[in-house]
Amino acid sequence: MYNQVAQAYQRTQQTTANPRELEASLLIKAAARLQSVRDNWDNGRADLDEAITFNRKLWTILATSATRADNPLPQEVKTNVANMAVFIFSHSMRILSDPKPEKLTSLIFINANIAAGLRGSAG
């Protein structure tokens, strides 16, 4: 799955002029998958692992890219992205160890708000 996410990211990045829009689109896709599981908990719970895994892999890619030494982002932004990724990873494990639909809300909120910020529509 990681390879699929990375390959999709790379293909889209090559065909898109705006990497921020690509990142926003992928965050929205991950949020939508998580929201679908939350909304259809009784029927969609089987998709929980897949949605959580997709989100974690996306955040792995985002954090790795953002925190690279050659990334021109300010150090404070790099640190914030890294800290957010650590939260995403640890919260994902808490969800998987004790699944409850309401626990997905924070992941959905984070992804949607960061996507909005990347698109310049936060606030």
Give descriptors for this structure.
77% helix, globular, Four Helix Bundle (Hemerythrin (Met), subunit A), 123 residues, mainly alpha, single chain, 6 helices
How are the secondary structure elements laid out?
Elements: H1 2-15, H2 19-39, H3 41-44, H4 48-66, H5 75-97, H6 105-118
Helix pairs in contact: 2-4, 2-6, 4-5
Describe the structure.
With 123 residues, the chain is mainly α. The chain has one domain: Four Helix Bundle (Hemerythrin (Met), subunit A), CATH 1.20.120. The protein has 6 helices and no strands. The protein has helices at 2-15, 19-39, 41-44, 48-66, 75-97, 105-118. Helix 2 (19-39) packs antiparallel against helix 6 (105-118) and helix 4 runs antiparallel to helix 5 (75-97).
Helical content band:
over 70%
Percentage of residues in strands: under 5%
Helix segment count? 6
What is the H/E string? HHHHHH
The main sheet comes to: none
Q: How many domain modules?
A: 1
Beta strand count = 0
Q: How much is the average pLDDT?
A: 89
CATH level-3 fold name? Four Helix Bundle (Hemerythrin (Met), subunit A)
The coarse silhouette is globular
Helix-strand makeup class: mainly alpha
The whole-angstrom Rg is 14 Å
- What are the low-pLDDT stretches, counting only 5+ consecutive residues below 50? none
First-to-last CA distance: 33 Å
CATH classification class: Mainly Alpha
- Assigned CATH architecture: Up-down Bundle
